[in-house]
Here is the input.
Amino acid sequence: MSTPQPQMPQAAPTTWQASSGPSYPTYTSPIPVLRTHLGHAIASEWTKIRSVRSTMWTLGVFVLLVIGIGLAAGALVASNSGEESLAGENPLSFGFFGLLLGSMCIITLGVMTTASEYGTGMIRTTMVACPSRGRVLAAKAIVFFSVAFVVTLVSALLVALADVAMLEGAKEPSAQEWLKGTVGISFYIALLGLLSLVVGSIIRHSAGAITIMIGLVLAPLVIALFMFSASLEDLRQALFEYSIPNQLSVFYSNSLTETGPSGWDPLWIALGVTAAAFAGAFALLEKRDV
Amino acid sequence: MIELEGLTKRYGEKVAVNNLTFTVRPGIVTGFLGPNGAGKSTTMRMMLGLDRPTAGDVRIDGKHYDQLKDPFTYIGALLDAKAMHGGRSAFNHLLCLAQSNGIPKKRVHEVLDTVGLTAVAKKKAKGFSLGMGQRLGIAGALLGDPRILMFDEPVNGLDPEGIHWIRNLMKSLAAQGRTVFVSSHLMSEMALTADHLVVIGQGRLLADTSMADFIAQNSRSYVRIRSPHRERLLDVLHSAGITAVETGNGTLEVDGTKPEYIGELAAQYQIVLHELSPQQASLEEAFMQLTAESVEYHAHADTPLEQPQWGDGWKGN
Here is the structure.
């Protein structure tokens, strides 16, 4: 120990017996005592998320997918369409493909934020350092959501600006369309990641949680594709409308159908589902052994 | 100080920890001993608020663990040396722990120095040997300069130099007035470090005693004798007022008599001796005797009788 420490005399056996009060000799640290709060947990989680290479890899691939595919889609459309064919189209909507694929990275990162700690056993160290389990989950959620939202917003904004510049024939997006196509969809993607984080905390197993989340994103759409029976038409319609890819496209006012979610609906749906899952994860965290 | 009161943990039908009541006191090293599967780690996890007790209570300086606002200044624990993200550097691992308790970055450098990992602070933890991982875990336990330290099997996987280092560290921490609680399944290891012993088996408390008392009670010294004239020797010993116990294989054991005296006695009556040796039952034996009935996973010395033979299945046809 390099800190100066008072040398305490060793306790005689007789004093232990009567040591119900604070009369026993005990060590007092020179380090000042601090009441910890959520801010400390957030600082800790920020160090955790930035200090592993897999975070950088996942986010790097995400940015590459969103920007690469977004620009490629814009360029492809620009070279293949005349002045008139694009009229009335929202140029922001070509960012959709990159974000749909990129959401897999955000899902993975979200799951890893919680579930990987169960895989390594780090969660025990974390919970010993911060006995308030809810605080740990909240700090993870805040740090991850901020990172996911900022990275998605920056990527989506870059693609939007480039696509608007490239597609001169398309209409000029309104302020509402700009807001939905950048901030709105980034919020939605970050919420999807947050849901993954929460599922990771419930399942406690990375591969399992990632499978569940990818299934949630893709399964409804794929299943609906093969519902040929007329009697299943209503279900098929609902699966299409509420599938996550279709909800994403609502942010560009490009729904598969005329009914179903519109405007800001997908965001409220995502918020509701994530909040419910969060409450469940919180209750389970309090109840289960670490 | 750690106080346990009727601490119990059940997993379904199985009772892992059964009504444990004892106190871990400051200023000494308390050894927590028990065979594999005795419930040591479960007990430690309950002390740290990781597992919820089925019944009973455990308090750290009078408080439940989850009531501690600055847990690292109360208690530092090494549970599992591998319980860290392999991709994170030693420094960042300690930094995130320090930040969660508002401990300044300077302290991370200090504990790295204490455990001798300064040179590899920027290296990823997955490249660490078991011994280095153990040191990193101990650095984490020391971060808050806590009053209580808890180590779960700290010497596992360490080389002799590392074992020596841990022993001295635990003793010096206790000498500073801290509470040191260390688990092990090796009695010989405890005999060298612990001042007090808590022994459990199948989750039940078997002993709560000072090390000195345990040694005095359990280290029986006796004399082992072999002689071709066993009957005559027994008569001679009997008439001299010495009780000898036959232990099979023609050996006799005598308690509480010096071997010199028995040798002189044998010489006086001209009895040939093949062996006359002072013996000391080891603490390991005493520990095994204490926990013999509670060992969960017995290794069977003899093979099961009803071992299926190759071709048994054909006999019925």
